[in-house]
Each structure stands twice: as structure tokens, then as C-alpha cells.
Write a structure and sequence with these properties.
Layout (H helix, E strand, L loop, with lengths): L4 H6 L5 H9 L1 E5 L3 H12 L4 E5 L23 H12 L4 E5 L5 H8 L4 E4 L4 H12 L5 E4 L12 E5 L3 E5 L12 H20 L7
Parallel strand pairs: 1-2, 1-4, 2-3, 4-5, 5-7
Antiparallel strand pairs: 6-7
Keywords: Nucleotidyltransferase, Transferase
GO molecular function: nucleotidyltransferase activity; tRNA threonylcarbamoyladenosine dehydratase; ubiquitin-like modifier activating enzyme activity
GO biological process, one term: cyclic threonylcarbamoyladenosine biosynthetic process
Length: about 210
């Protein structure tokens, strides 16, 4: 079997055992905006193949400053547009696309088919509802709060909340007071993706 260029390159970064673990790990990404779309591409670039992508929104011109979309995708469902871009990186992906709003009740059901749950919503209410429902599943949860504006990227840190919840951000900046801009958003997205990779390689994610 001929490996894709990405997989050939990844073989220089990881052992076969590590790549196998990465490929088996199923990640749910709730929200495909600045955090979610960039987290997804970083995970694919790290070898992850099995992603569930959830977002009810469509690509808008206000998204292009920080999200992994392009002008010719305006008006498309974010889940579909993101899938197109990810498949250009790695054609051999297993993507589950859910273009809908996520409720707390649905989170538990979706978590049964995933190993790590990643929150990437904009609004604080949606974030809190997802984290509460996700935490109740007992699966590792990666979330973010406080990444708007510019400057002070060193303040975007990882905090452990309880035994299985990991929060990225400075904990106080809000898009209600400062605009979401590419540098800080991508720093936070990178830290979320790095946490998913760390949890996977260290065995904290129990892939089926």
C-alpha cells in the first residue's frame, strides 16, 4: 500500500506504535471556528484520522481572519468546508460531520464513540454546557477560555481542572470585549491540539 505524503513524513516523527495509537484515537471537536478548524488541521498534520466535527454555522467573511477556510468556501457549512480542506492534507480520513447545534444530552451519546472530547465554541454558555456534559462521561476533556485580543500570548496557559479536564487560555479575555484575532486564537488551538496528542501518546485516551 502506498502511503500518502503526509503519512510518509510522519514516519520520521513517530514510531509505528505511536502512529498506530494516534490513528486509532477518536476525537470529537465541538465547534469548527477559529479554535476547532485550526485544532483539526493540526491533529490531522499529527496523524489523527478519526474526527467527529460538529458545527451548525456556515463560513462567513468575518471568519477568514483566523479560521481554516478560504474565500471560495463562503456560504458552505463549516463542517463540509473543513472536511474538504482536511482531506486535501490526508485523503485517508474517517470524518463524521454533524452540521447541528450540540446539546448536553447529545454530548453523552456522541462521547460513546470518541476517546477525547475537545471544546471549541465561541460563547461562554455553550462552552460551559459542553464541558459539564463532557465531564460527566469520564472521558478526557480539552477546552478553552480567554484567548481574545492580541499580545501577552504567554498568558495562554494550560490548567488542569479536576482529574480529566484541561483548560487552555488566560481565563479572562472575552470576544465580547476584544476581537478574536489569528495569533492568540491559533496559540490556543495549538495548545488544545498538543494536549490531545499528549493524552494520546501518554495513554490517557483509551481508544477502542
Amino acid at each position: 500500500m502506498t502511503l500518502s505524503p503526509l503519512r510518509q513524513g510522519l514516519s520520521r516523527c513517530f514510531t509505528e506504535e505511536q502512529l498506530g495509537r494516534i490513528r486509532r484515537t477518536r476525537v470529537l471537536i465541538a465547534g469548527c471556528g477559529g479554535l476547532g478548524s485550526n485544532m483539526a488541521q493540526m491533529l490531522v498534520r499529527s496523524g489523527f484520522q478519526n474526527l467527529t466535527l460538529i458545527d451548525f454555522d456556515v463560513v462567513d467573511n468575518s471568519n477568514l481572519n483566523r479560521q481554516f477556510f478560504f474565500p471560495d468556501q463562503l456560504g458552505k457549512a463549516k463542517t463540509q468546508a473543513l472536511a474538504e480542506n482536511l482531506l486535501r492534507l490526508e485523503p485517508d480520513l474517517k470524518l463524521r460531520l454533524l452540521p447541528c447545534r450540540l446539546t448536553g444530552a447529545e454530548t453523552a451519546a456522541l462521547a460513546e464513540k470518541c476517546d477525547i472530547l475537545a471544546e471549541a465554541f465561541d460563547g461562554p454558555e455553550s462552552k460551559a454546557a459542553f464541558v459539564r456534559a463532557a465531564a460527566a462521561t469520564g472521558k478526557p476533556v480539552v477546552c478553552a477560555a480567554g484567548l481574545a485580543g492580541y499580545g501577552n500570548t504567554d498568558q495562554i496557559r494550560v490548567r488542569k481542572v479536576g482529574s480529566r479536564i484541561f483548560a487552555v487560555g488566560d481565563g479572562y479575555t472575552s470576544i465580547e470585549n476584544s476581537p478574536p484575532l489569528a495569533p492568540r486564537v491559533m496559540v490556543a488551538a495549538a495548545k488544545e491540539a498538543d494536549l490531545v496528542l499528549q493524552l494520546t501518546l501518554e495513554g490517557s485516551a483509551h481508544a477502542g
